[in-house]
Write a structure and sequence with these properties.
This protein has nine helices and no strands. The protein has helices at residues 15-33, 38-55, 63-77, 81-92, 102-125, 132-148, 150-153, 159-169, 175-190. α1 (15-33) packs antiparallel against α2 (38-55).
């Protein structure tokens, strides 16, 4: 899917996306049966991430089932790979992208909020030392959310628990999650000055 990306004019159906629609239930079944296997989950999430990046708005018919699988997958496994794919969807269907309907953008943001709520719930139940990879992937996702949806995320009721979780993540002794949390905090603080870290 990274290499077979046909140019399809207008709103015509993309044959590559049609193929992946047929394969999607198979990948979903594999995921359902191997949720505890990190390599399998990572490969399927990488596949879905590239699908979104490669076909952008043409993948719209798959967004609903894909969002459901990503949310279910994270809830069952607590693996960060489900957050990478969420991040790709958030970027590719953000408000400042052309050819994206407002209703789709609204649904994508609602999906992000649900995913963020699941992650925060997990972080409150499991010590940060047991979730360094999830914390890193979550704050990378949040950097994208802040970049593409600042007017929704900053006034959101999720902002305070996200910030509090970032502060608690700073106690970790691993560089990657601490760096990701600090990157998020830095970008958030730029919205208090004249040069916010905005995507447009």
């Amino acid at each position: 899917m990274q290499y077979v990306v046909p140019y399809i004019p207008g709103n015509a159906e993309n044959p590559a996306v049609k193929y992946w629609q047929e394969v999607f239930p198979i990948l979903s079944t594999i995921l359902d049966n191997f949720t505890s296997s990190v390599p399998i989950c990572e490969r399927i999430c990488r596949c879905w991430r590239y699908m979104v990046i490669s076909y952008r708005t043409a993948v719209t018919p798959l967004l609903g089932p894909l969002a459901n699988k990503l949310a279910e997958g994270f809830a069952k496994s607590n693996q960060g790979c489900f957050l990478w794919a969420t991040s790709a969807i958030l970027r590719e269907f953000s408000e400042d992208r052309e050819y994206v309907e407002q209703s789709i953008t609204d649904n994508i943001y609602a999906f992000f909020e649900a995913q963020a709520t699941n992650v925060l719930r997990t972080m409150s139940n499991i010590p940060p030392n047991d979730l360094p990879d999830v914390i890193e992937d979550f704050y990378r996702l949040l950097v994208d959310a802040l970049l593409y949806y600042p007017t929704r995320l900053i006034p959101s009721s999720l902002l305070t628990p996200i910030f509090q979780a970032a502060i608690s993540a700073l106690t970790l002794e691993k560089q990657e999650p601490v760096s990701a949390a600090l990157h998020y905090i830095r970008d958030l603080l730029t919205y208090g000055g004249p040069n916010p870290a905005t995507s447009n």
